[in-house]
Automatic annotation (TrEMBL), chains A, B:
Keywords: DNA-binding. This is TetR family transcriptional regulator C-terminal domain-containing protein. The keyword Nucleotide-binding does not apply. It comes from the Bacteria. Residues 29-48 bind DNA. The keyword DNA-binding applies. It comes from Pseudogemmobacter faecipullorum. InterPro entries: Homeodomain-like_sf, HTH-type_TetR-like_transc_reg, HTH_TetR, Tet_transcr_reg_TetR-rel_C_sf, Tscrpt_reg_YcdC_C. Pfam families: TetR_C_3 (PF08362), TetR_N (PF00440). Residues 6-66 form the HTH tetR-type domain.
Length: 201, 201
DNA sequence: GTCTATAGTCGGATAGAC
DNA sequence: GTCTATCCGACTATAGAC
């Protein structure tokens, strides 16, 4: 693949990230993506055969980054710190990459006209692997017991809601309010209290 | 308004709920909505002047139901029980009305081509009102201190993720897994541990 | 009030010259 | 590899008969 090809593919994926994250799969148009990438529409379709293929390629290129926070939980670390790190990494990802976050959120909410068996398989594998780690920590009394899969998704979704500066927060607290700082404090409180060993009452 | 008019408007909104929740605003078409409602497309546009107006009317008709769980928090009740009731009502709403949940989630994620100032204003008013109630309970030491607005949204989003049987849960745990039962147990654990007065460590 | 028919627009995708 | 030109289908919305 030539240098110019690489550059154009990159420009297309970057433009697609913009459009798909703002308007969803249906709402984004090839016209917009081509314009944003500085290419004509036929030229766009020279690089990718269809809209679906652009979307698929985009998801594949983002998947590793997206799964990194959960993936970096280590069975060998101190349990609470590992879980807090997962939360902080995810929150940071959402802060610096809101568009990527919205792509995946939209995928979960509305699905896509094409399936992603490889993507689903990788998510399943990773979540189940980390759930085993969490359950082991609970068995050894290092953190309080709860359903590990629900815990993983709870942190996933709680951090997710702060993407794109958290629309609900902006609606309630003003257009220019940035909830990220408070978010970390709040989520650390939740997790510390939630996971403290031998819960009472 | 005649009886037949009322019946048709109702059929249209019901069909619109189906289509908008499955495909989003852009993805839904008037053809599908008209067919589902048993009307011709021009007849559909006799009742509502445009696609946007259908969407707007639908949101308005669902708003009260959607805000009811939060609205029913009473300053006079026992704090933890009131908050658990909010969580349970929201979870029940998500269980029996997944389509409605997806409509609002999609609105938050992608917005809509038309604004909803009245809707936003009502959400803002309600959240701020209940945040004051929560803060008062914290000041009186009845529940542990945390940011009340973040708490309200945390419960909102944690229950939300179980809508439509919770796609991520189904991907990881199998197509026919239903997380609702476990969800209530899990969320009650989270909230009890989170809100227990005078937290230690 | 409800229909058939269709106008006008825009979407994704292709053909073929250069 | 990139372009102009264009096809075709699907979409929202309107006109006008009944």
């Amino acid at each position: 693949m030539s240098r110019i090809q690489r550059k154009n593919r990159e420009a297309i994926l970057s433009a697609a990230l913009d459009m798909f994250s703002q308007h969803g799969f249906k709402g984004a148009t090839l016209d917009q993506i081509a314009a944003q990438a500085g290419l004509s529409k036929p030229n766009l379709l020279y690089y990718f055969p269809s809209k679906e293929e652009i979307h698929r390629a985009l998801l594949n290129s983002l998947l590793d980054q997206w799964l990194l926070p959960l993936n970096s939980i280590s069975a060998k670390g101190e349990p609470l710190q590992e879980i807090l790190s997962y939360m902080r990494r995810k929150l940071e990802l959402v802060r610096i990459a809101p568009r990527e976050s919205r792509i995946f959120a939209s995928l979960i909410l509305l699905g896509a006209p094409h399936s992603h068996p490889a993507l689903e398989e990788e998510v399943r594998r990773l979540v189940l692997e980390k759930a085993i780690v969490l359950r082991d920590w609970m068995d050894r009394g290092l953190i309080a017991r709860c359903d590990p899969v629900h815990l993983i998704f709870a942190i996933w979704t709680l951090t997710q809601q702060y993407a794109e500066c958290g629309l609900p927060f902006r609606v309630v607290l003003g257009e220019h309010y940035d909830p990220h700082q408070e978010a970390e404090v709040f989520l650390e409180q939740v997790l510390r209290r939630m996971l403290r060993p031998r819960p009472q009452w």
